[in-house]
Amino acid sequence: MRVSFGVLGPVTAWDGAGDELALRGPRHRAVLARLVIARRRVVPVELLVDDLWEGAPPAGATSAVRTFVAALRRALEPDRPPRTAAALLTTRGPGYALDAAPNSVDAWVFEDRLQRAAALPPEGALPLLQRALDPWRGSAYADFPEAPWARAERARLTELRLGALEHLARVRLDLGQAARAVPDLDAHVAEHPWREDAWRLLALALYRTGRQGDALAVLRRARSLLVERLGVDPGPALRRLERDILRQDSLLDLDPAGPRPGEGTTPGDQLWNQAADAYQRVTPGARVRLESTVNLLRDLAVTGPEGLRTARAQRLAAVTAAEELGDPLLTARVIGAYDVPANWTRVDDPERSARVVAAAERTLAALPDTGHEGARARLSATVALESRGTRGARGPQAAAEAERIARDLGDPTLLAFALNARYMQTFHRTGLAPERDALGAELVTLATRHDLVTFRILGHLIRLQSLAALSDWAGADQHARAARELGERHERPLTGVFVGWYRALRAAADPETLFEDAYTALREAASSLRGAGMPGLEHGWQPLALLCLRLRHGMPAPTDDGVDYGPHEPWTRPHVLLARHRYDEAAAALARLPEPPRDLLLEARWALVARAAVALGDRTAMRRALTALTPAVAEGAGAQTGMLTLGPVADHLDSLHRALDT
Fold first, then answer.
1. In this prediction, what percent of the chain has a pLDDT beyond 90?
2. What CA–CA distance (Å, rounded) separates 659 from 662?
3. Radius of gyration (Cα) for the chain, nearest Å?
4. What CATH number does residue 207 fall under?
């Protein structure tokens, strides 16, 4: 029986006669949707469990997934004889794959028709575009609007659909069907008012039907929306069209394809547009463009908040596109080219990082047994970087492998990337600031010698953090100045976020600084985080830094309910409950604390445990904190971050010893 699948709307499946199959409950559909997104690749059972139950899966979640799969198999292949292997939803290695035919999933059919239409003249593209848009029944993966695992794919398909609608409008204008294009474009801009090209096409279609006044009214409406709600002026394409309409140019002279390269821009912008236009014309195929796209994303990621967010959002799409081409060497280059220096040990999007790690591991397994050592090192470094903060053995192993290969090859850029990966895996215990400082020093030397600016900045930031942990404030000051100067000279604005926070740390750590002055410095530093494109750092950071400041000054935690500590909440909760005099609840919260993540806050979290344990007389928690903090006796608790401090670890150890001896 031929089965087809639909995800361009609610997730469903149909038999060969077009009748809908009974897929049972929402988690059954979620499993099917997740396998469709994987495009015939294996999805491990563990990943399905994580996707279906965000947070902590219940006991028996793995068995439940197997039950869902069994039910789906019965629905998809009702005539399959007992004890015979499934042909559609197959078991492969550690998980499952949906071996659907390329023309059996509506989203895949949509993309295929769209791709073929792009290569055709208007006469051939028109019917293909209309057929491409036919399968849409609503939002993609409409059953799962909030599911993180569907978010990127839904956004990608939605963007393709909007682009297809605009391509269809351009084709109709090329074929002289302006009147036919107007109703669809009118509905399109009403639903998506921020798409400037849609406004331009609608105004052009109205003008070509002889409705000059309506065309100008549309352009004025677009201008009003853009200026009043977004605070931006219309782009050169809209401005040029308005000028041409006012000049009453020939109806056919107005080009539906958009603005001429370089018009209405600065000389630098003109050069960029001309080069991009030339590249678009002469670059032959998808593989070259894909690699070039990742190189552009790597550069974009260090330009500032918007560039970082865009690069991060597009990176996974590039990796997915590379895997779909079936060339592991190409995929290795696409994954490994994104060697953006990373300084913070908590990933911004754990789900996205897990997918990048999974893609890197698949690609490593698919590489030939011999050769391609550089690609192997970059993939291993990527695994280590993107798995930072986790407790498994794979991250440190991957970092060591990447460093070994990079040193053998003598490739300075690869070695810098590998050293970054190793740095991210040096948080398995406390007291490792000297080791990290040595890594930072090697990075500074290597990057200076080979003019690797972003890794040179990273080396200075690592040394800033490590020397702050060791209370070498003069040395940390020196590296803060060097990082700031490099960031300003080479237009790396995110460097200023970390340097600004370091200045606030210096104020908070200085015993001569009044509480009010340190509090103000931390609040001012926090303003630089808002919108910086680093949610893994931003969420909950300001409240945590202010709590640490209060505790250092002998003040209780804030007791208002509106404080959001984000991922730091488990370690702050005992202190909040203590401040509310809810001692039994504070003791229970302390007893429930998990092992802290392996990151820059390791010493700070154990110091929070130590303070709460002493206050509550919890000797078990005291002994745990004592064991964990003892290797860091010469360091500051939290100063490893370069952003906050809970004072010297030695002071916390003294408090623990006194409490345990009482």
1. 51
2. 5
3. 29
4. 1.25.40.10
* Two tokens, residue 440: 């930072």
486, 520, 554 — which closes off a domain? 486
Is there a single domain that holds both residue 475 and residue 327?
Answer: yes
Is residue 305 within 8 A of residue 532, CB to CB? The reply is yes
- Residues whose CB falls within 8 Å of the CB of residue 65, separated by 6 or more in sequence, listed in order: 31, 45, 48, 49, 52
C-alpha distance from residue 218 to each of 186, 225, 308, 319, 321 (Å): 10, 11, 34, 39, 37
DSSP string spanning 71-121?
A: HHHHHH-TTPPTT---SSEEEETTEEEE---TTSBHHHHHHHHHHHHHTS-
Residue 267: pLDDT band (50, 70, 90) is very low
Q: Is the pTM of this model over 0.90?
A: no
- Residue 635: which of 422, 344, 430 has the closest Cα? 430
One domain for residues 48 and 187: no
How many Å apart are CA 598 and CA 612, to the nearest integer? 20
Task: Please give the Cα distance from 219 to 144 (Å, whole number).
Answer: 36
End-to-end CA distance of the chain: 76
Q: What does the chain come to in residues?
A: 662
pLDDT in the model for residue 245: 80
* Final residue in a domain of this structure, among 206, 237, 252: 252
Q: Is 379 inside any structural domain?
A: yes
Q: 415, 343, 338, 427: which is closest to 383 by C-alpha?
A: 338
Quick check: is 267 in a domain?
Answer: no
- 547 domain-assigned: yes
99 and 181, same domain (yes or no): no
Residues 448, 299 share a domain: yes
Judged by average pLDDT, the poorest of 326-330, 568-572, 657-661 is 326-330
Listed in sequence order, the residues at least 6 apart from 438 whose beta carbon sits closer than 8 Å to its beta carbon are none
Domain that holds residue 220: 176-252
Q: Left (φ > 0), alpha (ψ -120 to 50) or beta: where does 210 sit?
A: left
My answer on whether 402 and 481 are in the same domain is yes
Q: Are residues 556 and 437 in the same domain?
A: no
Q: Are residues 247 and 299 in the same domain?
A: no
Return the amino acid letter for 206.
L
Q: Are 384 and 424 in contact (CB under 8 A)?
A: yes
Q: Based on the domain organization, do 10 and 93 belong to the same domain?
A: yes
Tokens 């488990």: give the residue: 570
HEC-encoded secondary structure of 349-375? CHHHHHHHHHHHHHHHHHCCCCCCHHH
Q: Which are the contacts of 132, defined by CB distance < 8 A and separation ≥ 6?
A: 109, 110, 113, 114, 117, 164
Burial profile 628-656: b = 16 or more Cβ within 10 angstroms, e = fewer = bbeebeebbbbbbbbbbbbbbbeebbebb
Indicate if the pLDDT at residue 442 is higher than 80: yes
Look at the chain and report how many structural domains it folds into: 4
Whether residue 510 is contained in a domain is answered as no
Tens-place pLDDT, residues 208-231 = 888 888 889 889 888 888 777 666
8 Å CB contact between 448 and 456: yes
